[in-house]
Amino acid sequence: MESDSTIQKSANGEHPKAIKVLIYHRVLQDPDDSRKHEYMCVYASDFRKHLRLLERWGFTSITFHDYHLYLKGELDLPRKPVIITFDDGYKDVFENAYPLLQKFGMKAVIFAIANSKILSNVWDHGSEHPASDLMTEHELLELHSAGHEIGSHSLSHPALPSISKEQLWEELSRSRMLLEILLNAPVRSVAYPYGLVNEEIKKIASEAGYFTGCGVYTGPAAFGEDPFEIRRILIRGTIGTFGFALRMLTPYEYYGWLRWKLRMIILGPVRHQHEVSADVLDTPESSNVSS
Question: ∠261-264-269 over CA atoms, to 5°?
């Protein structure tokens, strides 16, 4: 595996810090459902508007694989890169987001559950989130063939800080192996379920062969400063054009970073981690951390 210095800096010593990383989950055709579950869902018409605005503002979508090639000096980055990510690998992303991405000539990173026996969001059972189908292996292959990056979202979507070290290795290492067998291509990016991560998880992710690990609410504001805790900007279903512009045209990630740091100072790392877990696992829509 490549050294940390190779991962963190490009071949010419430069390190772009302004790359914005967006996180979506589902893209729906029903506006009422998308607003009812605004933490998880975006209306397809609004997603089309987001892509049109990114195009108008001069953003070009890249993947984490593209960024890694840049670090090795094998690829130049566009003037205003953005990374669009989708967690969980929902079928409606394939049905509704994929055609729009193709229409606008953009690509995304889809973090998929590697256990092909898990066909829906079983981790949400008992919550207010409805059961929703995940992509099939064939659909993941089609996305990969079309130039989109497929990353790991673990084997079964557990809260990683709450499982044993042995289970953690299984969730991270075996998920990468299964996806690589399916795609016949390297898988080097992982998104931690619920965005929950700690130093041990990052260490094991590195040992398991990943180059990039994505959280949501934690990590440095500057992109790539910690390659195993990439901060992402959550795109809710109710942010509107102004909210999307605020996230894209201002250093919004620094605002999120400052809130995170203040909570860490006020609550302490252990209590902060507990509250983030409770917010994400129980009532994400009311979470101040993930807004």
Answer: 140
For the chain, percent of residues with pLDDT exceeding 90: 75
End-to-end C-alpha distance for the chain, whole angstroms:
35
Number of domain units in the chain: 1
Where do we find the tokens 């690589």? 180
Q: Does residue 272 belong to any structural domain of this protein? A: no
Interatomic CA distance for residues 118 and 121, integer angstroms: 8
Nearest to 83 by CA among 230, 201, 210: 230
Q: How far is CA 285 from CA 89, 135, 237, in A?
A: 20, 24, 11
d(CA 168, CA 291): 27
Q: What are the backbone dihedrals phi and psi of residue 18, each rounded to the nearest 5 degrees, phi first?
A: -105, 10
DSSP β-ladder status, 233-234 and 189-191: unpaired
Q: pTM here?
A: 0.89
CATH number at residue 16: 3.20.20.370
Residue 266 — very low, low, confident or very high, per pLDDT cuts 50/70/90? confident
Facing residues of 190 across strands?
152, 213
CB 171 within 8 A of CB 155: yes
Examine residue 117 and state whether it is found in any structural domain, yes or no.
yes
Domain span at residue 33 reads 4-256
Q: What's the whole-number average pLDDT of the chain?
A: 88
